[in-house]
Amino acid sequence: MRVLTVDDSRTILAMLHHTLTGAGFEVLQAEDGKKGLDVLKTEDVDVVITDINMPIMDGIEFIRNVRSSGQYQSLPILILTTETSQEKRDLGRSAGGTGWIVKPFDPEKLISVIRRVVH
Amino acid sequence: MSDLDDFKATYFDECSELLGELEEQFTAIEAGERDSDRLNAVFRAIHSIKGGAGAFNFKDLVGFAHEFETLLDYVRNGKVDLTDDVVALCIRSNDIVADFVAAARNGEALDADYGAEEKARFIALSKGDTDGDQGGEPMEEFDIDFTPVAVDLDHKGEPEAAAGESWLLRFTPHSELYSRANDPLLLLRELAELGDITVVANLNDLPGLVEFEPFGVYCSWDVQIVSDSVTEEKIREVFEFVEGDCDLEISRGTLDVAHEDEGFDFDGPSLADLVAEVKPDAVAPPKTLSVVKPAMMAAPAPGEPGEHENGGARHVGVQSIRVDLDKVDRVVNMVGELVITQSMLTQQMDENLRQKYQELVRGLEVLAQTTRGLQDSVMAIRAQPVKSVFSRMPRLVRELAGKTNKKIKLETVGENTEIDKTVIEQLSDPLTHMIRNSADHGIEKPEKRIAAGKPETGTIRLSAEQAGGNILIIVEDDGAGINRERVVQIARERGVIGEDQQLTDEQIDNLIFAPGFSTVTEVSDISGRGVGMDVVLSNIKKIGGSVHVRSWTGKGTRMTLRLPLTLAVLDVMLVAVGVCPYVIPLSSIVETMQTARADFGRMPTGNRVLQVRGEYVQVIDLAAQFGLPNDTPENQRFVVLCEAEGTQKVALVVDEIIGQQQVVIKSLEENFERIEGIAGGTILGDGSVALIVDVQGLRVHTTQRSAA
């Protein structure tokens, strides 16, 4: 399974990478939404994990862009958020986000959340 | 755990960058540039610092950063006015965040109330401008499309189900559920993990084929879960992501068998067959009715190893790679050799050869161009903008202004100028020292400035520019200038200069870099710290640079650092001593002259000295020094006047001056052993080895010897 991780924080990317490769996933990385879209142009992925607050293109716009392309209407997109409050999630969901992961994430929970949205 | 340590290291690296960015952005914001890009950037930076801190459980940092972030969120959304007061609070808080990060890095704890005052102000500001009922959480307009769910109230709040308790739920997805890429099949599978489940698809709403829309929503499911541990909460958790995107009825009960029959009351061919019949190519035959799998999702099956070996990560779309610096250095060195070989080849082409081999000449010209391009590109790999060092200075200046009760503003120019990474790393200390010096000794107190008819706020200007093969870093202040009388007086007292030595203004100014010289009698908290400006000079010399100071009484002081673009290639003067070639770094050479025209004298000790413009300079005959035979008549030799540390000069006597060129430095220590007076070796174009003269080392060495 291939996972695209989109986050402007190297720390988060590194931790996601560690956890996901540890679970046997293949990990692709991008530092902002725009770069994430670039990756999707050439690569097939099974699930996307994206941060919300990013420079150049934030996660919300990234999700909208992905969803607006017919090809990716059923690509699961998980939102990474530090907010425990509802609003960021709902913003992300109304843009087309499939689910969310609250940072700091627990590795097991991360994997189980991915399993919840990907076959 | 080493993984965790690695992540921490990454995090702290990232924090340094983010803090630098914050510093830069706030400096611009302070200067009045309050556009939304900047406000978003500072919000993001604090947000990222907080995010990572949460992962490592740095509670103090998270606590402070959270309130700071909340305030910044209000500010960027225009809910809190960005007054000068708030900007000042933010800048102060930035420093506090930096302290929290440093404490976390060093594993120290700060005082429990550290930053409490600022934190309280964040909360007050955030609350004051809102209804105050948000508990400090950012408030945003958004539409919660929450659909109330019918719940069997009779069962709600009952103790946990007894063994084998049966739950019943009816799950009716809305189209939004599918448009957000959620999949009922996965939800049902997850339910299966809670207990024994029986699922019945309700297909009553399926339209006839004519009205059937491929992406229409027609199915709902009834699920019976039998388990001894399941709770309504656990069931709802499974549907966490689809809350609002489906109708969900949860109750206690068992599946009605009649209902089950109804569910299967579907006559005729299966939907899958129908779909396949209608669009044989577009849609793969679905395994289940629940979801039509689009082609792209069908790629690798779950659990299957990826199509790439090792199942390892493949970074795509990442625009940079990390390379071991050693590898880059090897390339830099080889390119250096290439440049030298190329220039040697070009030099070998005399007029005769040029006429004879025109094709070769053209080829060499192309080679020269390509080599230069290659050198520039390789240097660019190691080069970094000076911004990374410059961005630390605004904070320093603020601190200094506070401690000295002066008003000082810092202007930076040319922060995108790029210099070799090693040079940048060595730049921070000298620069800090120079700015401290400017703030402490240069800029006057506000009263004094006003009395002198100057603006109350002093300016320190920090600039970087490329000038030929050098980078100039200039620290300039509009302060009082160097007090030359005092400098001379102290230099005499401390024996830095002789009693009757006459110096030009420029020479006096540069005395501040002389070893053991400090114009402050008591060591001040700011510039003092036990070391003088001589440290600046020795640091800069180490990286092949030079420092120069110019001062204008009452108008200010300008200190110029001249740094090499790269450390790998050295500009040298090639000389001959006896039959051996030696090279002297060009940066340390002041002038050269023929011995016939030099004014030698003898000290009472018998040591030979050279008199240059009223100054006596120690003379070192390299042939004698290195024990080399030489038969060049004394009056046909040359003197190379070099500047050693500080303003100390030394005159080297050599047999011949061959010319200037670039060489690649080879370490003697690594390849042979350390030799006094020799800084390293190099290989010349013709393959012979030349030693690099260490002017400072030579001077110390001979001084010690003559003293012994």
Q: What fold name goes in the CATH topology slot of chain A?
A: Rossmann fold
Radius of gyration of chain A: 13 Å
Counted by DSSP, the helix tally of chain A is 5
Mean pLDDT metric of chain B? 77
Mean pLDDT of chain A: 84
Q: Uncertain spans of chain A, ≥5 residues at pLDDT below 50?
A: none
| Secondary structure: number of strands of chain A | 5
Q: How much helicity do the residues of chain B have?
A: 40-55%
CATH C-level name of the largest domain in chain B = Alpha Beta
Helix content of chain A: 40-55%
Our count of helices of chain B gives 23
H/E element string of chain A? Answer: EHEHEHEHEH
Largest sheet of chain A: 5 strands, parallel
What does the model show?
The complex is a heterodimer of chains A (119) and B (708). Chain A is of the alpha/beta class and 119 residues long. Chain A has helices spanning 10-22, 33-42, 59-68, 86-95, 107-117, and strands at 2-6, 26-30, 47-51, 77-81, 99-102. Chain A has a single domain, classed as 3-Layer(aba) Sandwich (Rossmann fold). Helices cover 45% and strands 20% of the residues of chain A. Chain A has a five-stranded parallel β-sheet with strand order 2-1-3-4-5, with helices on both faces. In chain A, helix 2 (33-42) packs parallel to helix 3. Chain A starts with a strand and ends with a helix. The mean pLDDT of chain A is 84. Chain B is α+β, with helices and mostly antiparallel strands and 708 residues long. Chain B is built from 23 helices and 22 strands. In chain B, strands 14-18-19-17-16-15 form a six-stranded mixed β-sheet. Chain B has a five-stranded mixed β-sheet with strand order 6-8-9-11-10. A five-stranded mixed β-sheet of chain B has the order 20-12-13-22-21. In chain B, helix 1 (2-30) packs antiparallel against helix 4 (84-106). The longest helix of chain B has 29 residues, at 2-30. Chain B starts with a helix and ends with a helix. At the A-B interface, helix 1, strand 2, helix 2, helix 4 and helix 5 of A face helix 1, helix 2 and helix 7 of B.
